[in-house]
Specification:
The chain is α+β, with helices and mostly antiparallel strands and about 650 residues long. Helices cover about 45% and strands about 25% of the residues. The strands form four sheets. A six-stranded antiparallel β-sheet has the order 2-1-6-5-4-3, sandwiched between helices. Strands 8-7-11-10-9 form a five-stranded antiparallel β-sheet, sandwiched between helices. A hairpin with a 5-residue loop joins strand 9 and strand 10. Helix 9 runs parallel beside helix 14.
Length: about 650
């Protein structure tokens, strides 16, 4: 049994190994206790945060000296820090972009931060692990020495020895009470049973050979066999013995190592899984694209994790199938059968672990393929290859399952609660990495769109301006500069009222501000004053810009120069007014000669007018026509003026 001093030394060693491990990472890592205080920070964390270890250790997310701003440049109070949220909710907070002021270098650094709480089996908060920069947070499970000691103590407390004495003929001379307690027979019954009758058939010859070796050598320090209890339970035992040549007695001491062997296997499995987790996290750190993860995960699962078989299956929505992409281990035709009997639809072929993982986006496991109804279709093919347990993890991007990772173990009940918790964290890390890849791609796409939009704005013939919420210029495009006569440097930081001409009243300006501050768009006409003092008219459209929280951050204005249209309209209005005046003035002058002409036309239609009178009236008609012609010419001259 370990001494207390040994345990302390082992604890210190484990902590030192953990510190050395995080010190080698290319990402910042800090650890918070449940009270929020920081107890651990690696060199990368100190470098990114611009703090010394003395300044950082003991600090909490609520410390006012952080000077953290969010992605929109607003102050981020302590309760909104990822670590604080994780502390209060006991749930992970991922992919938060923060700007941290570094007092040593007097600058600000932007980091991508995630905070993940660690809970014990009773859902109590143990600690918060915070990672920041471009890599996924590292979740490395260290087997604590205290847990190992409790496990060893449990083995020792539950183990008890069987003491048996045989004579040369194999007759039982002595049986300790523990023999009866372990095997479940009464002492009297045990004395009547043949020697070694509780040893299972497969171990009988090995046991007899060990007894013969004991008689030859005189002692035997260790041999193992398996015993069957009255209830059919198989127990593992280790034996040591001595042969008394004088008395011809065989002394045997048997130790029940069933739990010990079980825990040894679990410990080896835990170490394998820990190594598996470490390799997976290293793969995540070094992966450049999603295919790097797919190509490495299966090999690590088989070669490091000790699994029999692992494969990645990609979602095929067109054919509603799962298409195997990469595998490692004992495939031996299993995937050919899988491809023919798999679906992502809600049908029998789609209700196994793989189909449900794709549909539901959840981790599913089967601890006994031989009896689990969900594995009925694939059971025989799996069992003939030694697959006893399986686990399927979803690969998700933006809450959509794009693939599944399936791993198979060669033992029943392989996935305990601890292993499931570990595999869940591995799955979270993988999905975190996949979302990082997607986020980088989205940012690149957004950047490309932003460049395209910026070029379009720069080259647009329409005047465009961007102001802050108080109306101070932040940006104007070249077309705006051409219209106003100012350049960007002259306008940046200046209020828009520099363009006021006096044509718009203060009440109208007040109405405009009320509307756009109410998150509504406004359109109308302005008369602006250029840098040289000249005036120009614009048709303006002003809209507010909101952030993800619905807070107005800017206003965008688009202006169309309508000065020429205004001048043309004014000219037409003046001409129309002049024409109306001319029409009114000349209408009376036109009526008089026109009336005389019409009257004389009527006279010519009467037969009683003489030839002399017709000649006279024709002369009057000519004079009236000439008078009318003069009036029309005068109208034309006035119209053209």
């Amino acid at each position: 049994m370990n001494k207390p001093s040994d345990i302390v030394n082992k604890d210190i060693s484990t902590e030192e190994e953990f510190i050395q491990l995080v010190e080698q990472l290319a990402v910042g890592v800090i650890k918070h206790l449940p009270d929020g205080s920081i107890t651990l920070a690696n060199k990368k964390a100190l470098e990114l945060l611009g703090l010394t270890k003395d300044q950082l250790i003991g600090k909490t997310p609520f410390d006012p000296s952080w000077h953290v701003i969010n992605e929109q440049g607003q102050d981020m109070p302590g309760q909104l820090h990822p670590a604080a949220i994780a502390l209060s909710t006991k749930t992970p907070k991922r992919n938060i972009i923060m700007g941290v002021y570094r007092p040593l270098t007097k600058d600000r650094v932007w980091i991508l931060t995630s905070a993940v709480p660690e809970l014990d089996q009773f859902e109590n908060l143990k600690q918060i692990i915070v990672t920041f920069s471009e890599v996924s947070e590292l979740k490395r499970k260290e087997i604590s020495l205290n847990e190992n000691n409790r496990m060893v103590k449990g083995i020792l407390d539950s183990s008890y020895d069987m003491i048996i004495v045989y004579n040369e003929k194999g007759e039982k001379l002595f049986l300790s009470n523990s023999v009866a307690e372990i095997l479940g027979h009464s002492i009297d019954t045990l004395y009547t049973l043949p020697p070694f009758s509780s040893v299972i058939e497969e171990d009988t010859k090995r046991t007899e050979a060990a007894i013969e070796e004991l008689k030859i050598k005189g002692t035997i320090k260790y041999f193992e066999n398996r015993l069957k209890t009255v209830n059919g339970e198989i127990l593992e035992f280790s034996w040591s013995g001595k042969w008394d040549a004088d008395l011809k007695y065989i002394y045997l001491i048997g130790k029940n190592i069933t739990n010990q062997k079980k825990y040894q296997e679990e410990l080896l499995k835990s170490r394998r899984l820990f190594k598996f987790t470490t390799e997976i996290n290293d793969l995540i750190l070094n992966a450049k694209e999603p295919l790097d993860l797919y190509n490495g995960i299966c090999d690590i699962a088989v070669n490091i994790g000790g699994f029999e078989f692992a494969f990645v299956g990609l979602r095929d929505d067109i054919n509603e199938k799962i298409v195997p992409y990469k595998y490692a281990g004992k495939e031996t035709g299993y995937l050919d059968f899988f491809k023919e009997h798999i679906s992502i639809k809600n049908i029998p072929e789609g209700n196994g672990p793989s189909g449900r993982t794709i549909r539901d986006g959840k981790l599913y496991y089967c601890n006994d393929i031989s009896t689990d109804p969900a594995m009925l279709i694939w059971r025989d093919e799996a069992l003939k290859r030694g697959f006893k347990s399986s686990l399927t993890m979803p690969v998700r991007v933006d809450d959509y399952t794009i693939a599944q990772i399936a791993i198979y173990a060669n033992k029943e009940n392989f996935f305990t609660n601890e292993e499931l918790e570990l595999m869940t964290r591995i799955n979270e890390n993988i999905n975190y990495a996949m979302n990082n890849f997607a986020m980088v791609e989205k940012h690149q796409t957004a950047q490309n769109k932003l460049v395209t939009l910026s070029q379009a704005i720069e080259q647009s013939t329409t005047a465009i301006m961007i102001t802050d919420v108080n109306g101070f210029f932040e940006y104007v495009n070249p077309a705006f500069c051409l219209s106003s006569g100012y350049n960007l440097n002259e306008l940046r930081g200046v209020k828009t009222n520099i363009l006021k001409s006096g044509f718009t009243t203060e009440l109208e300006y007040q109405n405009i501000w009320e509307k756009i501050l109410n998150k509504e768009s406004w359109s109308g006409e302005f008369c602006n004053r250029r840098k040289d003092g000249s005036l120009y008219w614009v048709k303006a459209y002003i809209s507010p810009v909101e952030n993800s929280q619905g807070v107005i951050t800017n206003f965008i204005g688009v202006e169309e120069d309508i000065t020429l249209q205004k001048e043309t309209l004014s000219t037409l209005e003046n001409k129309n007014k002049r024409l109306a005046e001319i029409a009114w003035e000349q209408s009376h002058l036109v009526r008089a000669p026109l009336a005389r002409i019409l009257g004389m036309v009527n006279l010519f239609q009467n037969d009683f007018i003489s030839t002399e009178e017709k000649a006279m009236y024709l002369n009057y008609l000519k004079v009236s026509a000439e008078e009318l012609d003069a009036v029309i010419k005068a109208i034309a001259i006035k119209t053209n003026d």
